[in-house]
Amino acid sequence: MLRVHFTPEDLTRVRIRPEPLPLWEVLLSLHLLQTRHGDVVFGQWRRRARPALSDILTTLAPPKGYSPDFLTPAVDSADLEVGLEALLSTRRQTLHSELSRLAEQTPLPGWVRPLAAGEPRMLRLLADTIRRYHATALQPYTEVFRAHIREEWTRRTEVVMAHGLEHALRTLHPSVRWRAPVLEVGYPVDQDLYLDGRGLVLVPSFFCWQTSMTFANPSLRPVLVYPVTPDLGWVSARPGAPDQKSLIALLGRTRATVLRTIADKPGLNTTELAREARTSPAGASQHATVLRQAGLVITKHSNGCAVHTLSTKGAALLRPSSPSAG
């Protein structure tokens, strides 16, 4: 179990990220790619992404146990290159210490020694390997990740506004329990994290499967990476100009109702949309956000209200010749 210890000051310094952190998604996707966990949700992606694996990545990010913290530097950016620049700047002492800890868990190949010594050539090779993996295994699905994480961010911030931060922490994930002033998190090892006034960054993650994550080193900026639940069929929800079948993979029954309502009555604001679709204003806002990010809906602001209309793609999806969403 992970126990996160809050002070009163920490409760005023909790922040929820609205976007994925690319290097955390790289690390956690590598963990998933080497297992069969969540095969119903990730199996199709796993078959497509497995050729992107390399010995460097599987050595540094094994599916169980410790992975070095330097693989996920403490940067606050959704830009992969910003994270890689921070990784390239990792101090030699940190590299040596964390790779020595990894060596206690599993035998390491000889190429790890120059990396542990901070040789620039090896650091650049690692960065290039991560870049190639990201381009093959993750980049094609970036908009899908963003839509899921933005939806979680919207839901979580609305919970904070309606019910307070402690309720948002209590309902963060089924593996999480709030026992003030300690957040108890299901975790593979026994660990305590004392925030000591530094606050906490909550990071929703697409590839974090069932178990939340944080840094092994408690002196680093406190983060808690926790799971969001991907939609079934998310692999088909490709960015760009997906076909109708791919777009349907983004929709559930309520979201499809919201889309049809916007098609039947264009120009509804969010409150009106909620009433017509028989959902809450918060739910209508969340679904409209995901539909907009999928390219199905256009949202504009008029007289202080968000007003929704169907996009060309949304209209194509709902043509009579199209299969209906379930």
Task: Explain what you see.
The structure is a single chain. This protein is of the alpha/beta class and about 325 residues long. It has three domains: about 1-20 and about 145-225, no CATH class; about 20-140, no CATH class; about 240-315, Winged helix-like DNA-binding domain superfamily/Winged helix DNA-binding domain (Arc Repressor Mutant, subunit A, Orthogonal Bundle). It is about 45% helix and about 15% strand. It has helices spanning about 20-35, 40-50, 55-60, 80-90, 90-105, 110-115, 120-140, 140-165, 165-170, 245-250, 255-265, 270-275, 280-295, 310-315; strands spanning about 1-5, 15, 175-180, 180-185, 190-195, 200-205, 225, 270, 295-300, 305-310.
What's the number of structural domains?
3
Mean pLDDT: 88
Helices and strands, in order, run as: EEHHHHHHHHHEEEEEHHEHHEEH
Beta-strand segment tally:
10
Sheet with most strands: strand arrangement: 3-4-1-5
Q: What is the percentage of strand-forming residues?
A: 5-15%
Q: Please give the alpha-carbon distance between the first and last residues.
A: 39 Å
Radius of gyration equals 21 Å
Number of DSSP helical runs: 14
List keywords for this structure.
four-stranded mixed beta sheet; three-stranded parallel beta sheet; globular; 326 residues; disordered C terminus; single chain; alpha/beta; Arc Repressor Mutant, subunit A; 10 strands; 13% strand
Provide a compact summary of the structure:
The protein is of the alpha/beta class and 326 residues long. The chain contains 14 helices and 10 strands. The protein has helices at residues 22-33, 39-49, 55-60, 80-88, 92-105, 112-116, 120-138, 142-163, 165-170, 244-248, 253-264, 270-277, 281-293, 312-317, and strands at 2-5, 14-16, 176-179, 182-185, 191-194, 200-205, 223-227, 268-269, 297-302, 305-310.
